[in-house]
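Duplicate of earlier report; FO synthase input re-posted below.
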Amino acid sequence: MTNARLRGAAPGGRDVLVAVGEAWREGRAPSEERALALADCDDTAAMAALAGELRDRGHRNVITYSRKLFLPLTHLCRDVCHYCTFARTPKKVDSPYMAIDEVLEQCRRAEAMGCQEALLTLGEKPELRYSAAREALADMGFSTTLEYVRAVAAAILRETSLLPHINAGCMDADEIAALREVSASMGIMLESASERLCEKGMPHYGSPDKQPARRLETLELAGRAAVPFTSGILIGIGETRRERIESLLALRRLHLRHGHLQEVIVQNFRAKPGTLMAAAPEPDLEDLLWTIAAARLLFGPQMNIQAPPNLSPGVLPQLVAAGINDWGGVSPLTPDYVNPEAPWPHLDRLAAETRAAGKYLEQRLTIYPAYACEAPRWLDPALRGPVLRQSDSGGFARRDNWAPGEEAPVPAEDARLLDRQRELGPVSADLGRILSACDAGEPLAEADIARLFEARGDEFGQVVRAADRLREQRCGDTVSYVVNRNINYTNVCYFKCQFCAFSKGKQHEDLRGRPYDISGEEIARRCREAWERGATEVCMQGGIHPDYSGQTYLDILHTVRAATPDMHIHAFSPLEVWQGAATLGLSPEAFLRQLRAAGLHTLPGTAAEVLHDEVRAVLCPDKLDTAQWLEVMAAAHRVGFKTTATVMYGHIDRPRHWARHLLEIRRLQERGGGFTEFVPLPFVHMEAPMYLRGQARRGPSFREAVLMHAVARLVFNGLIDNIQTSWVKMGADGVAACLGAGANDLGGTLMNESITRAAGSSHGQEWSPPVMEARIRAVGRRPRQRNTLYGEVSAERREAARNAGDLLAVDNESAGKWQRDKRLAGEAGSLAAEAPDSGRPAPGRPDPGRPAPLEQVIPLAACN
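Output:
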């Protein structure tokens, strides 16, 4: 907090605020003694100023909300809170419980409106008070309300995409454990830790479940069970400010023990007609702001502090200024059944009022981002897949249906943020410092790079514009592309990468097509056809067939050289180089020298996925680790090869992993200078095995995909000038956005692209030069056909590419146990050699007289 604001505070208040601020600057919570002293601080403005600074430190420019469906599962309740209109008697309800069919009908309507949370709210244990509740439960086959709640939540999970959040009141350990299996989060409002409020004449008199000890016990048990939990206080029901602080401290003690409180709600009492407290005074705005600020000062920068927006219409920017970072659940479909007199604000209006407070409204799930990102700790295994599918890399909600490889328009919110005609708001201080460093050409630290990936709202727009300015300085307005052909010689592979939908074994035939392994004659035919159609490059990769050896790759090079002597060969991932070298008993560098002598020109930097072994241990555990991939690339650069670099992102990875990946590429480029381009490859999820098993996200969000291009431009400033965007994965609209976010290259025309299509992409398999150039001109840039090394292309090649005929159908010959010969006819005899006594050919040599039946294909999954 500024000294000026402190000088304006009363002496006692100034001292306690200084102490609280110093504590948080040192990374520790203020003592309970200091916290209780806040009860006597009446300088709300000074408290709010410090609270706002703490909130900005933890949450920057983002205010969150959850798009929810409110389901009042039962209005019956054994308690008689004096301010409540939610609870009713059996005579005043049509049915004691919502039927499951009614619940699911509401859920499907909510899904269509973009909701992702199903809030199950109910009265507490009505079967202990009402025979009507007991009879209704018995008729449905249940003995308790919470058994029915579990069944309803399970049905929601099974039948819809909504994530249940359960407010079931006081529970024991077994009940919490049962509901944890069917919910992404739960909650119970403490309301107050004051026993005084349970005395006769006070609002909780006659309500056994409002005894503070019972509610705190539920919160304790939830912490032990690792349930992401919501709680908070209700203000204005007769408690003192000291009692509010004591209630917040009771919650803080629990959170310090277990870390499970994902949010603390400060809810202001609203008087309701027909209740015993209908004439009670409501807390004024000053009192609400004081309490919000106090909650932030007690819980610090990281806690999520919430205030319901429908209970304070017209003053939302002031609530933001007091330290909140969340509006709670807002429903576009159902009312707030607890406060029916207070309608939800329209989401457009809520976003506008949040912007008026200098913040950006971002959608979250019912489980908060930090907890979603630690799913193994906080979620039952049955919930991890549904949460992954609904979340982005930061654990926030995916607000739209865009995914790489699918035909979908740019999400409206992202299009708004990328609109160059919009005036962007300021960025947070830390991001401003990072962008200034980028403008000055200073190298970025890993944490700085991760922060760039976390940009949202206008900060997202500012990062994109900074990258585009740098692109213009380094590359001008030219956008390049290369006419090439992809040749994937086999989709059989013995590695088990969890993301790959390309490679095949017998067990994958029904799902993703038959295994194949093409011959040298077919490779040569495709190369000749590509040359006739104006190609300057063939890009060749494949699965790691169990019968392939380093000689296989040398044979492929001889075949291409013989068929098309002037074709540039861009081939063999670091994984293929590593495996090929191992089969020949060579070091990667020695094998690379053989490949170079045989005619290989450049290498693709694929098989990188994410260069962070924490990710690779899950994604591709039997593949190269980070150090091995970098070793092959460094060796290639030493031998004299130029290579590309890639990242395949948007599955289980997080911004900190991407930051490490970009730094690893940058460091290697600083040493060897061999990378010609960086190619972001967003994960295409549709047929990926790990996605189908519920173990991956739906690829990056559109914001993340654009940021990968923008952040790469900023990180590689002056080291790698060419940032490529994949039209196969991003589609036409996505490519246009990336060209405005630092990209300057569209890659290849890609005759016969197959890997991304195998994963489910619908963006086609070739963009001809006229299509490429039309797309480039459509965004106001100048097209340029290039070769693989970004050099000029002859007029003859350009003319051939523009007058290309249709491709002939490819012949993907069925795979056998042994590989097909990659040599041309007439060359095979001199190299054939049988391994003595083995009954099979020597490594890398097929047995032409003994083709393996399809059922002998090694049925191992997937790698690219």
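Residues 475-485+597-805 form a domain with the TIM Barrel fold (CATH 3.20.20.70).

Merging into the original ticket.
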